[in-house]
Amino acid sequence: MSPSSRRGFTLIELLVVIAIIAVLIGLLLPAVQSAREAARRIQCVNNMKQIGLALHNYHDGNNTFPMGGTPQLGLLTYPKGPYEWENYSSFAMMLPFLEQMPLYNSLNLMICPDTGYGYAQVPARTAYNTKLNAFLCPSDPYSGTQNLCNYAACFGTTTYMPYYQLHSTTTQTQGETSGLFTIWKSYGLQNATDGTSNTIAFGEALTGQGGAGYSSNGSQYRGNFVFIQTGGAPLSGDVYDISAVPNALSLVVSDIQSCAAAFKASLPNSIADYRGYKWIMGIPGATMFNTVQTPNESIFNGCRFQDQGCGVGCNTDSSWTVPATSAHPGGVNVTMADGHVQFIKNTISRQTWWALSTKAGGEVVSADAF
Question: What is the domain count for the chain?
Fold first, then answer.
């Protein structure tokens, strides 16, 4: 009898099997990643649908949409009068229609929620630090850590929003915007003469990383904000409707390139990371956006020039551009004024994007244009 022999795998056979497994994993991972992103995107769309529903329920109860920023008293301001800097956002005013009545009841609507120095007034401290999943996009890896809002109300093609009425008790014409939201004033369905299905109400915005505030390194994450420390205001200027500016396209592109160059240079203390800081704050950059840039157009998530009131150390308010951005491949979700959610591709033309953001621009936009 011949002795029994045991035969195992050869080294080559093992390597072939390992290679086949590696190839299968390589093919499977993108599918898994795609499925996960699809689920996250569905959740984001659902959030925005709920916000659109809340918007119309608010309108049914008040015959108007909420203000983008409401007027309250500032306890730390001087003189102590109506304060236009860190007031309640449209989201705060819609809390009762988002099944958050107890949180809404915790607010003292006489006092603005933020001190103006990046921390809460005592009467608003509970709501100020509350994280609500309804305002967070699960595709954004940095939302919900410190910065608590991925959605923003649209103030259109206006670039100066807002010129604050410092210590004034009446709104001024400079507080008007071409979009559906502004501060100290409400617009309603009657103002959306372009049609509610053709007017953007809310869009997405990636939050900052929620780190130390300003970064001397200039992290390249899109949620970060850039301040232009030197040089003048944008060539397009501070205007009510940027689409009406002569040679607007070339001027806007030039200004965006200036901002992008400054971001890439990572000038010391020129980068801030508090985009989408708190859902309760009714200011551009926190809960409001404009459409100077097309969706995801550039790596920076907003730009403020030195000539627009102050330089480094300021907030995102009064910024020239606070765009719509998202982590979804290919574009951003927006809630239109009729409540439906639309996915807008990054490739949308600037003129079409501008037209969709105005409430009464008189533009005719074809459905196949976006």
Answer: 1
